[in-house]
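tool_call: predict_structure(chain=1)
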Amino acid sequence: NLLWEFAEPMLELSVGRPYSIKSHFSFAVVHLLNQFNSHKTKNWKDELPDDRYIDYKYLTENKDKFGAEQNSFKFLLEILDQLNEKTFIVATQNFRNLLQHRFRLQFDMGLTPYFERKQTKARVTYAYKIASPLQLETLIPALYEQHQKSVDAFKAYWKFLNEICTELGAKCKPTNDGN
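tool_result:
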């Protein structure tokens, strides 16, 4: 089957990428702001947590702590917020999370059987369920949209990087516009 042989590995990778891209940019921005503040702030102290705790949630929860007043920083956060957002998660039936933590769904055809545990105050029950496959008619447009948002995130990051370089002056030289 051509879908299984050629498309499925690419689809599986593609559906998880918006989450990864969001995480990569978040990690880079946190470290960039940390270094920026080391040059900008007197008596600066490095208080970043271990790298494994630096993600989009950490970035958004600590944005004021970093003191990023740049307009491009706020815009970058707005763009990053659109990657792997709720509508994409719904359109992909939370595929990335299921792939990493449970059983992955099928693409286009095939069912995924699984057990669901339900706990009440009185008892625990298990139900045997079946999940429908992700339909390509829904998935492909959602992936195109996330691709464009990823490109937008790169451009916003590049603008932010250049703004920081300009503010640092001779310590950093901005380059082209990221296109």
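agent: DSSP finds seven helices and two strands in the chain. Proceeding to next step.
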